[in-house]
Amino acid sequence: MSEFTAIDITAINTIRTLAMDAVQKANSGHPGAPMGLAPVAYVLWNKFLNYDPADPMWPNRDRFVLSNGHASMLLYSLIHLAQVKNVDHHGKVLDEPSLPIDQLKQFRQLNSKTPGHPEHEYTAGVETTTGPLGQGVGNAVGMAIAQKWRAAHYGRPGFEALFDHRVYAICGDGCMMEGVASEAASLAGHLKLNNLTLIYDDNGITIDGHTNLAFSEDVPARFAAYGWNVLRVTDGNDVDGMAKAIEASKHADRPTFIALKTVIGYGSPHKADTHAAHGEPLGADEIKLTKKAYGWPEDSSFLVPDGVYDRFKQGIGARGAAAHAAWHKLMSDYKAKFPKEAAELDAVEQRGLPAGWDKDIPVFPADAKGLATRDSSGTVLNAIAKNVPWIVGGSADLNPSTKTFMKFPEAGVFSAKTPGGRNVHFGVREHGMGAIMNGMALSGLRSYGSGFLIFSDYGRPPIRLAAIMNLPVLYVFTHDSIGVGEDGPTHQPIEQLMSLRAIPHLIVIRPGDANEVAEAYKYALQEKHHPVVFAMTRQPLPTLDRTKYAPASGLAKGGYALNDVPHPDLLLIATGSEVALALEAGEKLAAEGIKARVVSLPSWELFEKQDPAYRDSVIPPTVTARVCVEMGGAFGWERYAGRTGAVIGMRSFGASAPLKDLLKHFGFTVEAVVKAAKEQVGKK
Amino acid sequence: MSEFTAIDITAINTIRTLAMDAVQKANSGHPGAPMGLAPVAYVLWNKFLNYDPADPMWPNRDRFVLSNGHASMLLYSLIHLAQVKNVDHHGKVLDEPSLPIDQLKQFRQLNSKTPGHPEHEYTAGVETTTGPLGQGVGNAVGMAIAQKWRAAHYGRPGFEALFDHRVYAICGDGCMMEGVASEAASLAGHLKLNNLTLIYDDNGITIDGHTNLAFSEDVPARFAAYGWNVLRVTDGNDVDGMAKAIEASKHADRPTFIALKTVIGYGSPHKADTHAAHGEPLGADEIKLTKKAYGWPEDSSFLVPDGVYDRFKQGIGARGAAAHAAWHKLMSDYKAKFPKEAAELDAVEQRGLPAGWDKDIPVFPADAKGLATRDSSGTVLNAIAKNVPWIVGGSADLNPSTKTFMKFPEAGVFSAKTPGGRNVHFGVREHGMGAIMNGMALSGLRSYGSGFLIFSDYGRPPIRLAAIMNLPVLYVFTHDSIGVGEDGPTHQPIEQLMSLRAIPHLIVIRPGDANEVAEAYKYALQEKHHPVVFAMTRQPLPTLDRTKYAPASGLAKGGYALNDVPHPDLLLIATGSEVALALEAGEKLAAEGIKARVVSLPSWELFEKQDPAYRDSVIPPTVTARVCVEMGGAFGWERYAGRTGAVIGMRSFGASAPLKDLLKHFGFTVEAVVKAAKEQVGKK
């Protein structure tokens, strides 16, 4: 006998009609997917999700990810009906609903909490920002990794229940076609993340029409090939069948994929099972007919029938409250027994850092031969990570090159057998890596990822989403210029630096020597709300003599004058590997009586955050003789070169050759900088 | 009994030793994969490939794609040993080898024809530029689509053999992990591209170490799920087994995936089967030991033993010459019988256009209400495409939104059953789409793809590769600003325009009205060597009255003054949807006695190609009062605003709301432009 009764069906139809009504009122949105998915989402939330609506910040809550974010009204309806509480910007839970019914009526309006796609940073109860397809699958994998890690690292005998949450995600056909989801799913199977349940909304419809226009693969078989536990539910209204499948997923030894056949726009007499239900309002008449089909008052609008709120209270509400209370009780015992660990867990939730996190960061001695910033980066990362246990990350199969492996013995490798390990082998999956990093960060880990800067292109969407979500993820990109050398143009970044700088809210840092690297890490670790991208060299750079030049701590301001030239004839502005080049040119010029101020400008974003007085003190507007040097695209440097300044940068793709030949070929030489400088001074 | 004899093994070991020697001499590169793959590559080239080394431009040649491009020495060795001829920049075959042995000795050196990764544009015999992993799989799928289309469109009874080439590709573990290959493979299975054979170098080693660190999925089972014919060869030296598998692939009704177990660095006593063989020279001592293991003279270098060149001549050389000669004979009959089609095929090879290709491009009448540029784009695309049969393309599941469907009856849909169709349903696979478009273009088609501008991020790597390869692919990106409206920040491009402008060799065009759209298409179709990206609006724009304003043909110069203001007080510079806004502001200013020149700047790249005199005539350096308006990121506009000009652009992510609210919220109003203009004039 089914455990579901008439009120459950009413609750399901409430979700459907709220979605229809909100989209209709906004005259914009996607009603069809919420209508098809309402049963499974209801079953999941009200029968399974360990989630306390009274505290959406509870660390051990089950996570729910709606990867097909265009079905946002499904999630908003659930948040409303479950009466999830609101949270302020500091993460404090407020005694008010996250989404009162008025917010549903403000769907897709300016400043509402119900934007077109679910946005984590705006709406309590939304675990991650989705919309760009496939990303949510990666986020869910990241959250599952974070749970495994947290349980392994902080779990103690008798306290397993503190860290035993699961991750549930729903995705659509679009997610299944996107490579990012393929990458993440392959890794999830490899890691045997049995705390993850992915429900595939197999409705057979996309924007273009039926999926058979472009998509006829056997998706469940593909997930089986990834090593997932694959289950099928053939009727999107079979609430018992889906409950059984979800229950089974909790006991699997692998991640579970539930292929659920649904009907898009279910109940709509004329639009069900067509792409007309996908991305536009059903229309007033069709809504009436659909409500009639549900046995709903045809002229009702935003109706929540009696008993529906109560049903959610009895379900997710009561279950979540009890679980939460039991957790609190157990947590107080844990705190008493393991005060250090408990304090760390608090810090994790606050994006904080343990005392002394920076105590082992080295100061690098001046050294003309120097070392590559990828190498100093590896040293600094290790020095910090050993003091911050929840730094967890890795590379897209480039550890030997990016030097981002945590080498201290207790770091270990994250694997199915060693889920407390901190080095993640993401594989050659830059896009999946980024989406997974976001999920890890959403679950409190300080996640980092690395690769060659050129391959930031493979994973731009999750970098952007981290910026939208204010997530402090860290990217350590190395091989940051034609300094790559022999690998040639396909591997030499040109436009990548500038393209990353163009992303709002993202902080890009290209340190000029080992001590700037140390400062870059200091900044990045203390950053709570912005993703940070490092650009590190493959080739060695001199470590500057800081008794001669300004201290590297200037990095925190984004740009600073290295040499003391109060009234310069010209400015030499450089980043990263070109700082030493500019300094050398500056010395040559000085010998000829030309006073050049050399500015290290490792981060445009941090520099632009300084007050104008500081910026003008470093780059005086009156000094228009300027040479900017960066071994990336010249495009964009007009900002600092001004209309008349010179830019020594790349204006084409690179070439395959030893670096010394490339430097000469593309003009990154002291002679070229000196020549440009003289021309600038001559112009004045 | 094997058809392979001792000389074949010698030839295989020649490939291996050339790769070892070249990497050693360069002191940089990847010896291991060529050593493992030499047998299958040899079998494929010398026993199967229908390829005439005397004419690498022969249209019906079988295509070979090395998706794991870091194994470039494998390909260079084959090109050398098969004595493929050189080709000049105009595609003319020269009577000299593409890669004499000296070029192998110049591996990875400046200006050599043997760069670190294979580059189509430098080296005759290299069908596509590879290196960024997974791309080659997509290219191969595109080439397979192009062959199917060509055969269906130009094939005639009795002339099938003119268009019957196959596509062979080799890929590695990295390619198999990248989502782009997953996307392309899924579509290839859907389209039943039985002209495609993909050989998977399953060597179990990546840069980080054994693939079991991150990759334990059942790759063959995954390809079976995509609908591929899956074959296995368990010994990378089993030349008979691989010949059998390749032969079988020629008779399949689906694309064939051959999983081939190889040993990376085969023969190296200490480095075989380890990641030490992957990305660095073996070392002089290890090379000696390896050569000894092959029965090779230990102190030889770049040795091609007697009989090896001849073996290639007897194999690929003789087979290719015969096939090519037969093809020419048949082609002359075809020319006689089907002169129009034959002329078109010539044009396809030349990236030409048929006479009258532009005759149906409409002139749009002035219209204050106007239409979205995505709509005028759809009209113009259709007007051109019906006259250019080899325009083949589609969208990533966004046809109803991007308006890029070719609607004329003879266009049809490209599918397994209708391979002469021209509308390709790429599915929700932006990255795969781009890689496939490149493959189609490499096989002569004028390929286009479309999607929302925001999702250009999902497919940046193939856009960049198109620019590197000088391929004239066309991207029609729509929904090009916060004009997207209710879908909100995840769907509203901000930094995308500028990030695309930052890519070298790429032409970005954001037309300001319907007639600029027509001009944009005219330009793009005639462009033979650069990829072109269009940015089109979702929302309607007025069609400008060209009796009042300068003709839209100014677009070809990238930027032009719309109104006739010889001595302006200030410049209003705008693109796309903001052109009309600037014009309206200009009129308001004129009414107040302020003379504003309004400049439409649809393409920065085309504008920068003009001579300085023209540029200065449009944007006079002396007029420093400037307001630049673009509904994208402000970042980068310093180029035209100058140090003191104003930029009205986005400085954050967007928001979900109806467009009219967003315009006000983010300051894209006539009032805001007028205000900024007055401030600028006041400053002067």
SSE layout:
The structure is a homodimer of 684-residue chains.
Chain A: H1 6-26, H2 32-48, E1 63-66, H3 72-81, E2 85-87, E3 93-97, H4 101-105, H5 135-154, E4 167-171, H6 173-177, H7 179-190, E5 196-202, E6 205-206, E7 209-210, H8 219-225, E8 229-233, H9 239-249, E9 256-261, H10 284-294, H11 308-337, H12 339-350, E10 367-372, H13 373-385, E11 391-395, H14 399-402, E12 423-425, H15 430-442, E13 446-452, H16 460-469, E14 474-478, H17 496-501, E15 507-509, H18 514-526, E16 532-535, E17 540-543, E18 560-561, E19 570-574, H19 578-591, E20 596-600, H20 604-608, H21 612-618, E21 626-633, H22 638-641, E22 646-650, H23 659-666, H24 670-683
Parallel strand pairs in A: 1-4, 4-5, 5-9, 8-9, 11-12, 11-13, 13-14, 14-16, 15-16, 19-20, 19-21, 21-22
Antiparallel strand pairs in A: 2-3, 6-7, 10-17, 18-20
Helix pairs in contact in A: 1-2, 1-3, 1-10, 1-11, 2-3, 2-9, 2-11, 5-7, 5-15, 7-15, 11-12, 13-18, 15-16, 19-24
What does this structure look like?
Two copies of one chain form a homodimer. Chain A has 684 residues and is an alpha/beta fold. Chain A folds into three domains: 6-324, Rossmann fold, CATH 3.40.50; 367-542, Rossmann fold (3-Layer(aba) Sandwich), CATH 3.40.50.970; 559-683, 3-Layer(aba) Sandwich (Rossmann fold). In chain A, 40% of the residues lie in helices and 15% in strands. Chain A is built from 24 helices and 22 strands. In chain A, strands 12-11-13-14-16-15 form a six-stranded parallel β-sheet, sandwiched between helices. In chain A, helix 16 (460-469) links the parallel strand 13 and strand 14 (474-478). The mean pLDDT of chain A is 97. Chains A and B meet through helix 6, helix 7, helix 8, helix 14 and helix 16 of A and helix 6, helix 7, helix 8, helix 14 and helix 16 of B. Chains A, B: Mg(2+) binds at residues 173, 203, 205. Chains A, B: It comes from Frigoriglobus tundricola. Chains A, B: Substrate binds at residues 30, 278, 374, 401, 479, 487, 491, 538. Chains A, B: One of its GO terms (molecular function) is transketolase activity.
